[in-house]
Amino acid sequence: TDEIEGFDLDLLPEDSRTRWERLQVVFSHACDQVRRERAPGLQLDPRAPHDALLGQLRRRANDGAQTRPEWGLAGNAAFLIAPRHRSRGVVLGGRSFLHDYDASQDSDGSVLELLMTAPMLVTHWINWQYHASTCDPLRLGSGNKVLHNVVGGNLGVFEGNGGDLRIGLSRQSLHDGQRWVHEPLRLTVVIDAPQAAIEVVIGKHAVVRQLLDNGWLHLWRFALAGFERYEHGTWSPLCLDVE
Question: Which end of the chain is more exposed for a tag (fewer CB within 10 A), N or C?
Answer without folding.
Answer: C
